[in-house]
Amino acid sequence: MLQPSSSLRRVLLVTLASVLLLRGWAASLPGSAQVQARYWKGNLHTHTLWSDGDDFPEMIADWYKNHGYQFLALSDHNLIQYGDKWVDVAGLQAKEETLTRYIARFGWDGVEQRTVGNRSQVRLRTLGEVQARLQDAGRFILIPSTEITSNYKIWPIHVNAPNVRHPIAPVAGSSVLDTMQRSVDAVLYQRNATGQPMFPHVNHPNFGWAITAEDLAEVRGEKFFEVYNGHPETHSMGDGTRVSVEQIWDIVLAIRLSRQPPFPIYGLATDDSHRYHHFAPNESNPGRGWVMVRALRLEAADLINAMERGDFYSSTGVELLDVRRERRSLTVRVKPDGDTTFTIRFVGTPRNYNRASEPIIAKDGRPYPTTRRYSPEVGMVFREDHGLNATYTFEGHELYVRAVVISSKKKEDGASSKEVEKAWTQPLVALP
Fold first, then answer.
1. What is the pTM for the complete model shown?
2. Which of 13, 27, 224, 380 could form a disulfide with 201 if both were Cys (CB 3.0 to 4.6 A apart)?
3. For the segment 362-417, what is each residue's pLDDT rounded down to a tens digit?
4. Counted domains in the chain
5. What is the pLDDT of residues 131-149, one digit of tens each?
6. Both 246 and 210 in a single domain?
7. How many other C-beta atoms are found inside a 10 Å radius of the C-beta of residue 41?
8. Residues 97, 152 within the same domain
């Protein structure tokens, strides 16, 4: 049999790659199967009594289910909720009140207790047991997850892994970047070994001021990070010396998309919830940040695959009717909310932006170990619209464009009194 020449093989491979790319792109266009999909609301960062949360997993899942969420990842530190775990009643946050509420909701038959010495204990239900109690096909699902919780010296390095099959032990690296990379590699290794859709995402870069934009840009295989985290200690807005997490996003995008091949990073909004009894700005409460994922079915694999295509937006209150990331345009349609007004900003970085940067210098003359200062071109506002609908069409000078929708409504349950409700689309990358 005649074999094709090397040049012909290259043409065939390029053609095949182009067909696959166009199929993926067409899936998000009007008239395709994707228009039958819908948005599903979910939180990917949640803690329970299995680690450092203050309530039972069923109570937490029940809260999210009753507040309009369709999916939830219980992401306790360095574990999945399997096996046998007992907690002391006396050690519960809010003490007996936590148990009283639990019994009132699920009844005595749902509570397994024992006495060890003079200590009264309650067994925590496993993820499988919680799923059996609360999952509702097509309406609400629980996704297994874990927060790989590591440190490099004084800096906390946390990476979540939604839809993970097995727990992943924390890793020790030789630097912040190396620690992140080892955690990301462990998730990707498990995905390849099991064939189960899952992904790593880097949590709260400004928590402990641990992760710089320069380090995050260098992590291989990392496609997601938290642009918003509802925990009051994660410094999403920066502090005047150190940049906001949204600025970190633009710096990473500018660095990564200036290289070949370009590799974007998508922004998640999450709760990082720990406290479920007392609601206050200084508590890590539920309901502050979430993702809206457009998928055909409410199944973990469908949600993961949609997010990896960038077919989702993140929100702290603003609801979008539609986001269209087409070949050369980004369209946003906002759902009306009474008298609330909306500003739609199209943010991006020019292709030929000034790549120079400088360290931030402390009073003693030494540079802070933090993200460097970049040109105002990085993450500049290309255009600002007011209203419910807006489209940005590429003019040829853009490296990427993303939209942030800013509401006039104050975020009542925010970690800061200055917060207003927002939504973030994923970046549309300019094609050559």
1. 0.90
2. 224
3. 888 888 889 999 999 999 999 999 999 999 999 999 999 999 999 999 998 887 77
4. 2
5. 999 999 999 999 999 999 9
6. yes
7. 17
8. no
